[in-house]
Model the fold of this input.
Amino acid sequence: MTFAIREINQRNDLLPALRLGFHIKDSCNEVPVSLKASLLLVNGQPGPPATGNGSMSVRELSGKGDLISLDSRSPVLGCADVTRSPSPVIIGDASSGVSMALLRSLGPFQIPLVSYFASCSCLSEQTEFPMFMRTMPSDAFQVRALARLVSHFGWTWVGVIGEESDYAYFAVQLFLQESSLYGVCAAYVHHFPVVLSQKPLDKLLDVIQTEVQSIMRAIRQRNITGIQWIAGEAWATANSLWEEFGDLLSGTLGFGIRRAEVIPGLKQHLSSLRRSNIQDSAFLTEFWEESLNCRLNGSVNTHYHYIDNHLDRKPCSGMEDLNDVYSAFSDVSQLRVSYNVYKAVYLVAHALQRMSDCVVGQGPFVNGTCGKPQSLEPWQLFHYMKNTKFSILGEKVDFDRNGDPIALYDLINWRREQDGSLRLLKVGFYDASLSPELSLVVNDSAIQWPVGQQAIRSVCSESCPPGKRVARRKGKPVCCFDCVTCADGEVSNNTDSLDCTRCPDDMWPNDMRNLCLPKNVEFLSYNEPMGMVLCAGSVLGACFSLLVLALFFKHKATPVVRANNMELSFFLLLFLATCFLIGLLFIGEPSDWLCRTRYPAFGISFALCISCLLAKTSVVLMAFRATLPGSGVMKWFGPNQQRASVLLCTVVQGSICLIWLRTNPPFTNSNTGYLRNTIIIECATGSEVGFWEINQRSDLLPALRLGFHIRDSCNDVPVSLKASLLLVNGQPGPPAIRNVSYFASCSCLSEQTEFPMFMRTMPSDAFQVRALARLVSHFGWTWVGVIGLESDYARFAIQLFLHESSLYGVCAAYVHLYPVVLSQQPLDELLDIIQGSSSKVIINFNSESEVQSIMRAIRQRNITGIQWIASEAWATAKSLWEEFGDLLSGTLGFGIRRAEVIPGLKQHLSRLRPSNIQDSSFLTELWEETLNCRLNGSVNTHSHMVNHLDRKPCSGMEDLNDVYSAFSDVSQLRVSYNVYKAVYLVAHALQKMSDCEAGQGPFVNGTCGKPQSLEPWQLFHYMKNTKFSILGEKVDFDHNGDPIASYDLMNWRREQDGSLRLLKVGFYDASLSPELSLVVNDSAIQWPVWQQAVRSVCSESCPPGKRVARRKGKPVCCFDCVTCAEGEVSNNTAFGISFALCISCLLAKTVVVLMAFRATLPGSGVMKLFGPNQQRASVLLCTLVQGLICVIWLLTYPPFTNCNTGYLRNTIIIECATGSEVGFWCVLGYIGLLACLCFFMAFLAQPFSLQLSVSCQSSVRKAGFWMLDGRSLDRYCFNPGITWAL
Done:
């Protein structure tokens, strides 16, 4: 600093008419010492100069005030050049904690503080530290750089340690927050005390097995090696550690503040120090004695290092030279902190230069005035400093609005040279002025690592390669997980995929499960052995048949042929050859016309053969009967009858085929279910035979078959009740039927005392609202609107949400329930509330139909910029997108867990045909609504938007696979999956009942339930205790019959083509702890407006330096921010004088009353001695005495502001201390004296009260109040209160 001041004073282009001076005080890096030194500086050096220990942590630079010199070339510097006026700016302290203490204490003085090494981000809060600047970058930049660094090398599992200080606490907190954005987790976070004893050291090292010198010594004792140290900038360039701990610190990486390559003249300045010009400075004396290990005569140094007494050192001979020894203080190869000091001095100099250059009338202050260096005000100097930009040594120095410089760090690698020495090699840099992607540059090849030739691996779990997905470990950080291979039919093509993606139906994963490949297409072809055999058999069979036919035809006149019923034989052989040839239709790639030909052709031709065979058999039978005497049966079965029988049987078969082809003909089917990686193209018969999975399983209910009834509730209570009564009809006694719901989520249903026979596969709303409360808290939304339908579902859900969200400090801007039938009036009322509120986030507990009505009204009002939070009832309702995609883009909501696939379901749905659905009103309605046609004899009575009679008749050629339907869409299996689990719940309960052994059952005397004579209450007992796995998921229920909740966090994303993509951006797992239950991938979310979450708060958070003042009658989230008092002006003297005035007036009035009584005595003239002038004089005299006491008090030892830290350990109470206790008690004592005189005068006036009362009676009677009797008159006139008042 002295060098910079000397350099500035010698320059002609900077402050040519001013000379800078300085004082230096030692803070010893302790708050009390630093505070004392600072107070000396800001009070104009009233005390003796402080001595130091060489730690120039607090340094002061003062403008020269009236020291204006035309000779600016004089290099003479020192305290003698500075007046005893208060210092207008302080450069220091090096420590963040000490700097904060100084700023809080010097706040009332408005003295600027410029630190060269304090980096705590907390110091950037201008509301709390308005007079602070620094040339050291904030830790906010350092931790971003460190987070980018660990992310760059793939280190996701790191330990974080620091001492118990403000610097470390804030830095660690910021690092954890910043590193989490890069997927980095803290294996441990440990703060150790400043004084490291053995106990905290052992505790720290136990965590690792996981002040730096103490840690390294203890690590060496434990022989802990292989650690990659990442240094904070506080020790990233600390060369002194290398000599003792080089073997442990080799390969260390850390960010150091920017280094100046050279400061011209500094080395010469340091080397020119001699005994003659250092003995007056305690700092330089200490530096000389410590570097050269000798004692100067008349030394003012009082700090000793490594020795007990400085007198033990030999005296300096005078021949010593600093150039002969190495010292870190004279080493100019690492000018980092020194460069910051250099820039701090130049900052003040350039600010003074701007102040000097200011033109009156164009200044920045009131009426265009300028600051004057000759009468310098610190706050004016600070204004210029805040707006100063300058260049120094080729670097542009600039500051942001918080007084922080733009951060630029060197990435330093600790390299061991061949001779064992340390080389601090720059291997990269971090520039905060660049974009995040370009801010960090690292030369990986130049880095020397602690072990091996490459960076070590530090992860909790290795990354999951493509083909696997991440499975979180319960209760562990997100960096700890297992890699689970994607299920059959699924792939993941990214590293660390959270989910696997289902391949399309016509594709299948490769062996690595990272790519979907087209499935192999198979059908019976002529090139396959089976096709060849079948083709050969068909041709040979046809040839043999035709050969026999030719022989029969050639020998048709022979008795053998004629006796074999020649005509029928010809038909039989011809149609048999046709049957063989039709077999060729079953070879080759099927097509619809081929499928519709092969089956009827084969059926008719084979029926012809069998008909001919039947006729021939009948002829033989009739022939035997004709041999009986008198039998004439042959006349009833002649050639014509034989031909007619063949034709009749064939016509019946032809009619069947014709009906088949007209109703539900065969069709080409791509069978993807038989072989997982192969598509078999086949001809489906078109005839639906029920596919019931459970009934086909041999491991579940092998001896039982399940049946069902389906009733439509129309979502209406009367209809649902009627259907339920029809289902339970026939039950003896009161029905005790168990209800298993697949979509009822109201938490009220968990009350087993009210609903003892209820279970569900749908999570309770109690879990949903916890997830929603965690979600709004995650994004900092404390001011939200809540709306819902007037229904049990919405009422209970909203009530639970308000309770749960209040635990996270979230308030409801409004809560509104609207009627089921949304007319214009309730819609207008709802929209008025939404428009009139400042909340930008709305949680909507509705179903899909209500959301449509609200969105239409919102579009009419043109209300935009709302962040919708969907309840699970409509969080995945894709049908809303087509009409309201512009309003709902960016919506967030929790959807119930989705099944990736239910094997066989898609094929089951694709086989639906009119012939197998007409008996079901549900399937008929699905068919007619999806294909927009009307089936003959339709049993559908529900019409949507049109009358079903207006639809055209179905042609029979329709196919559900040709159109999209939400019912046949198996990509979002959520509610369907719940139904699937509900059926399996009953099946597994029946299986447990079947497996029960008599004598070991759960009922009386160890009996078991019997599926053959099923009692519903017995089945429910087994259901309550059933646990099973389905599609890889474990299904379990709590004591209320509720499943353990697991939700997918869905984001409504608009794709480039305008379509909707329901993207999973997180999940909520109620089985995890509250801190880990919600996982959100913030970067994957598409927001309604801009690229980040909206702000939705009633009041912005109060920054440090202000307190919350609640608004009366408003929620706790609505408040005002009131600036905390910096202290209070003492009002003890004002109180003493004002109270003395009151007592003096009271005393004068009392004396007047006493004199008035005495004046009634004969010959008394006392009143002339106490007239109005005397009364005023007495009041003035009594008050002057009190004023004199207060003046003496203020001049000797006045009251002052005191920070009381002793009453509460963690709180500073700002109060007014009395100063002089004697002065305080004199003020109170004088007030007490005046009060005693008042009472004494009043006591003297008491004997005159009787006389006054008699006068009162006389006056009352003269006034005409004769109606008062004697007792009343006495009560009135002898009343003590009236007497005293008079």
Observations:
- The mean pLDDT is 78.
- The first strand starts at residue 21 and ends at 25.
